[in-house]
Design brief:
heterodimer, A: 389 residues, alpha/beta, D-Maltodextrin-Binding Protein, domain 2, 2 domains, 4-stranded mixed sheet, 15 helices, elongated, B: 301 residues, Rossmann fold, Alpha-Beta Plaits, 6-stranded mixed sheet, 4-stranded antiparallel sheet, 10 helices, 14 strands, ABC transporter ATP-binding protein (chain B), ABC_transporter-like_CS (chain B)
């Protein structure tokens, strides 16, 4: 392995350097904690039910009992428990002391809910629906009809030609989350890669290395090592995220999205290699760490463009951009997740991306090789391209 | 043996290395001297294949050098090339492996070398924590890993304290004793003079002198110092020499260009002695060894 594939040695060093870097490990751990925390909060708040203590005097007891029985049917996160009080003054005292949340009392044209400092919106809406339906039903009976008959023909419901709204919204959110992960990985590992190349250049260790192995092997090794790290880290985050999501109500949507997720992986790998070549060039154009900010700026903007493209592109622009590297890395898998791309579309897009990557490797190797030994300040792309070997 | 023939390199319109030819014979220390910008580093980088050649060739054992040959060369770049944040031993093992050593061999060799340089207890430290002198020791260890078949060292002595210079000298002597050709650049002429078997002097991209130190000395006119017991002004009348300086009883004279290296100046010496003895006592008549610095100044002037 030593003499045949020295890039493996380079890749191994890249990986080991990162895996022994405390900042990287801590950063990954914090991200994991944030993801689990966010999903955990989702799970908890989904199953979370709020119980309200409602006090009522004898003349409001029927209405209060109705609330206790039926509120959960209207809003499953709201529960009502009723407590009878002798007088309204006693009820108000209970509100002030915090022993009860609400007091219900009849008015001339309906019911009044009294809170101490406020009446929470969810219980107000649920109570209004329960009481209105009950009163309507009673009124209907008095008029010799039923609630069903009165409401006949008034129902407004929604339907979608493609999937249902919740699923669509989930796919959208998932797409944005994956776009963010790609942005996060490509920017983070891109900077790591560029920085390590600048470090080799500024410390001149690159001169020693390139007398021992060909420049191409060094470039391939660095790209391979960082791509592997980026994929491993993203896979870890995505796996934890997916396991978390499977515990939520959204878990049921996952099997239908697995195709889109698979394509995301494919686009991620090819797209990351494509961008890594350019990060390598950005690193080689800088002679010191301070120069890197400047030489990497165009790439940082491009990465932001890819990320914001995930929100901003619509309609035809979205369709077109989903074929253009590097936008295709994010936009095509997003369209697939939302189910508005035919099966052949990602095939073509990834072929274009792979072709762009192959061309980039050739360009980048030339730029990288020629910029690598120019250690006087920043090197322009043109200088690097036209420099003699 | 490394042979450099007609090496030429341009940067833009300026020719930085112009038709440079020299040899680095096996088992010899060849010193590469010249002022700043004379083209030493560029030449060494071309020898190591880091820069393309615009003319000429580099030969190893009488055939064009290959990357595989260079892989077994030890090279030390001008500015210190090591990863600042990596641990010393890990780094040496990595460089050894890139040079084709098996991981275990690289580790053993590196550990032995660290012990020898008194750095065994620093093996687990990051390079940036070491003093500059110690970083340079690590650097030379990196260049020597795996018994290289040739050494190309750019300014290996710069920044070393005298004791470190001594151990570096010992080390290079060991390498030449193995029969390895060593090329190193330096601007410390006194060091080069006491150390080198051969010298290559570069000026503005051209070789202006090369050979053994003795050969370089004999290039210029020989000088004699005469001390008599009274005024030595009479030497101006002796034929076949040029008076450099007369200060009372002490005279320094330069012998006219020799017709051939074989012909010595026995007649002129005899004339000086005879004349001196005829006028009194001759206290001293000796050849003056021109310091390398002066030769250097002459050839690079």
């Amino acid at each position: 392995m030593n003499t045949e594939n020295p890039w493996l040695l380079v890749a191994r060093r890249e990986v080991m350097t990162k895996l022994t870097d405390k900042a990287f490990l801590v950063g990954t751990a914090i991200t994991l904690v944030l993801i689990t925390g966010f999903i955990g909060w989702q799970v908890v708040s989904e199953n979370d039910t709020e119980t309200y203590e409602v006090v009522a005097t004898a003349d409001a007891l029927d209405a209060a009992t109705l609330l206790e029985e039926r509120t959960a049917d209207v809003d499953e996160s709201v529960r009502v428990e009723v407590q009878q009080v002798a007088t309204e003054a006693e009820g108000e005292a209970a509100l002030r002391s915090g022993d009860a949340d609400l007091l219900i009392r009849p008015t001339d044209d309906g019911w009044l809910l009294i809170g101490d400092e406020g009446v929470p919106g969810d219980v107000e809406r649920a109570a209004a629906t329960v009481l209105r339906d009950a009163v309507l039903a009673a009124n209907a009976e008095d008029a010799g009809t039923t609630l069903g008959e009165l409401q006949a023909g008034s129902e407004v419901s929604t339907d979608l030609l493609q999937g249902d709204a919740e699923r669509q919204g989930f796919a959208q959110a998932m797409g944005v989350a994956l776009a963010f992960l790609f942005y996060f990985a490509a920017l983070g590992f891109g900077y790591t890669l560029a920085g390590s190349i600048t470090e080799e250049k500024s410390s001149r260790v690159v001169e020693i290395i390139t007398t021992k192995i060909p420049v191409r092997q060094l470039l391939i090794g660095k790209i391979a090592g960082n791509t592997l790290l980026a994929i491993a880290q993203t896979a870890l985050l995505v796996t934890v995220g997916l396991i978390g999501i499977s515990f939520t109500d959204y878990g049921g949507f996952l099997p239908a999205l697995s195709g889109g997720l698979g394509w995301f992986v494919a686009f991620f790998v090819v797209g990351f290699c494509f961008l890594a070549c350019w990060w390598a060039v950005a690193g080689a154009l800088a002679s010191r760490a301070e120069d890197l900010q400047t030489t990497a700026t165009p790439l940082s903007f491009l990465m932001m463009g890819v990320f914001f493209g995930a929100f901003l592109f619509e309609g035809t622009a979205l369709t077109v951009a989903s074929y253009v590297p590097p936008f295709s890395c994010v936009l095509m898998p997003m369209r697939l997740l939302q189910g508005d791309a035919a099966w052949w579309e990602p095939v073509i897009a990834i072929a274009i991306l792979a072709a762009a990557m192959a061309a980039t490797v050739v360009f980048a190797e030339r730029l990288y090789r020629r910029a690598l030994l120019q250690t006087q300040g920043r090197v322009s792309l043109k200088q690097a391209w036209t420099a003699a070997d | 043996m490394i042979q450099v023939r007609g090496l030429t390199r341009r940067f833009g319109d300026t020719t930085v290395v112009d038709d440079v030819s020299f040899e680095v014979p096996p088992g010899q220390l060849t010193g590469f001297v010249g002022g700043n910008g004379a083209g030493k580093t560029t030449t060494m980088r071309m020898v190591m294949g880091l820069l393309g050649l615009h003319g000429g060739e580099v030969l190893w054992d009488d055939r064009p050098i290959t990357d595989a040959d260079r892989r077994r060369f030890g090279y030390m770049p001008e500015e210190r090339g090591l990863y600042p944040k990596q641990k010393v031993l890990d780094q040496l093992v990595y460089l050894g492996e890139l040079g084709g050593l098996a991981a275990g061999d690289a580790r053993r060799t590196a550990q032995r070398a660290l012990e020898r340089f008194g750095l065994a207890d620093r093996a687990g430290d990051r390079v940036e924590k070491l003093s500059l002198g110690n970083q340079q020791r690590v650097q030379i260890i990196a260049a020597l890993l795996g018994e290289p078949q040739a050494l190309v060292l750019d300014e290996p002595f710069s920044g070393l304290d005298p004791s470190a210079v001594d151990s570096m000298v010992d080390l290079l002597r060991e390498e030449t004793a193995r029969g390895v050709p060593v090329l190193f650049s330096s601007h410390q002429l006194d060091l080069v003079e006491q150390l080198c078997d051969r010298l290559v002097v570069l000026r503005a991209g051209r070789v202006v002198a090369q050979g053994t130190v003795e050969e370089l000395r004999s290039r210029g006119p020989a000088r004699l110092r005469l001390v008599v017991d009274r005024d030595a002004g009479w030497v101006r009348d002796v034929r076949g020499l040029h008076v450099v300086d007369v200060d009372g009883p002490v005279a320094v004279v330069e012998l006219a260009e020799r017709p051939s290296p074989a012909a010595d100046h026995a007649d002129v010496r005899r004339a000086l002695l005879t004349e001196g003895l005829a006028r009194g006592e001759v206290v001293e008549l000796a050849e003056v060894r021109t310091p390398l610095a002066e030769i250097y100044r002459e050839v690079t002037a």
